[in-house]
Design brief:
15 helices; mainly alpha
């Protein structure tokens, strides 16, 4: 049975994992889309905000699925990091600066701005223009440190009790940090403040992936119920905290908050129980879309800006937010419609980018083959 085969060696692109990756990408887009809507202190608004808050946590889990283990190769990780992450990331930054200057009437490529942005990337600070690339910054740090992390994971793998102790300690740290509204651990979106929770979550993802074969098919329904329950509770917490503390900054929704971890675990379990045929058309389509998620992540803000500037976003808002829909239905339908539109358009753009990159690589190979 190919769909629930947990061996990466036998099935390097497990279909349900690729589906989970697509869902995480949609959730991230949904968060960025929903952030453009008018704020409200209602429960319905808080619930939607919660539902689109766990994409990054899921991405860290997925990274942990495949990053560590007996077949770990630091050389291959670094090679993939350079060719698959850093080069596309740098190219995107350069072009985003050019587009920004083109829109503002500045010189197309200002070397000072380019060097400033690249300096932020190379020093693992938050990008100035492309803030959403913080995830890749932390991922780069994670890969650099991965031999040490893999050694720790190998130690945990030999004893289930050690894994349980690690999970309990991680949950306790996150719980204490949540109680103090992130003042205890001071987690962040860059540097060590981002690397530490990323390490914890990827190790949790590794442990979860190893134990998923033990989960029964019936756990899918329990996972869905868990997602709904956790987000309802988190929404109530969000409202209470926002009303009681004027300095509250959505800490309970961040990717390193314990409710986000629990919700991501529930969704992971639910999706992992879906049955797929490894050779079916649906599986092929899922794998194809999943192969575009890096480029979708890089470029989705470009599409969001285009939809905003062309008035498409406002038209979608007019359809759902200015009618007789309830707050939950109106904001939910707007977020879902806009997110799917952004995903489809960004997937098309990503496909063109991949085709262009493939053509460039082929041309370079031909040039070197004739020399």
């Amino acid at each position: 049975m190919g769909d629930n085969n947990m061996s990466v060696k036998n099935n390097p692109r497990v279909v349900w994992v690729e589906l989970l990756r697509i869902l995480a990408c949609l959730i991230v887009i949904g968060r960025h889309v929903f952030a453009n809507s008018a704020k409200s202190d209602s429960f319905s608004y808080a619930l939607i905000w919660s539902l689109v808050s766990d994409g990054v946590t899921i991405f860290w889990f997925i990274s942990g699925f495949f990053l560590y283990g007996e077949e770990f190769s630091y050389k291959s990780k670094l090679k993939h990091l350079l060719t698959g992450i850093i080069i596309p990331m740098v190219i995107f930054n350069v072009f985003s600066i050019g587009l920004d200057h083109l829109a503002s009437g500045k010189p197309l490529f200002c070397t000072d701005d380019i060097f400033t942005e690249l300096y932020c990337l190379l020093t693992f600070n938050q990008p100035i223009r492309c803030f959403h690339l913080w995830f890749l910054n932390i991922y780069i740090l994670l890969i650099i440190c991965s031999p040490l992390i893999n050694a720790a994971v190998s130690y945990l793998d030999t004893n289930r009790k050690r894994e349980n102790i690690f999970l309990a300690i991680t949950a306790s740290l996150l719980f204490i940090n949540d109680l103090t509204l992130n003042s205890a651990m001071n987690f962040s979106f860059h540097g060590a403040g981002g690397l530490i929770p990323a390490v914890l979550l990827t190790i949790c993802g590794h442990i979860i992936y190893r134990r998923l074969p033990e989960a029964k098919t019936e756990y899918a329904a329990a996972g869905v119920i868990g997602v709904v329950f956790i987000n309802i509770v988190r929404s109530l917490m969000q409202i209470t905290l926002a009303r009681s503390s004027p300095d509250y900054e959505d800490h309970i929704l961040f990717w390193y908050a314990l409710p986000s971890v629990f919700a991501a675990i529930c969704l992971t379990v639910a999706v992992s129980r879906i049955r797929f045929s490894d050779t079916g058309k649906v599986s092929s389509a899922i794998r194809f879309l999943s192969s575009l998620t890096l480029y979708i992540y890089l470029t989705h803000f470009v599409i969001i800006d285009i939809l905003d500037n062309t008035g498409v976003t406002q038209r979608i808002k007019d359809i759902f937010l200015n009618k007789d829909y309830s707050i939950f239905a109106g904001y939910g339908l707007y977020t879902l419609t806009e997110s799917i539109a952004v995903f489809i358009l960004t997937a098309a753009l990503s496909l063109l980018i991949k085709m262009a990159a493939g053509a460039v690589r082929a041309s370079i190979r031909r040039c070197f083959s004739h020399t």
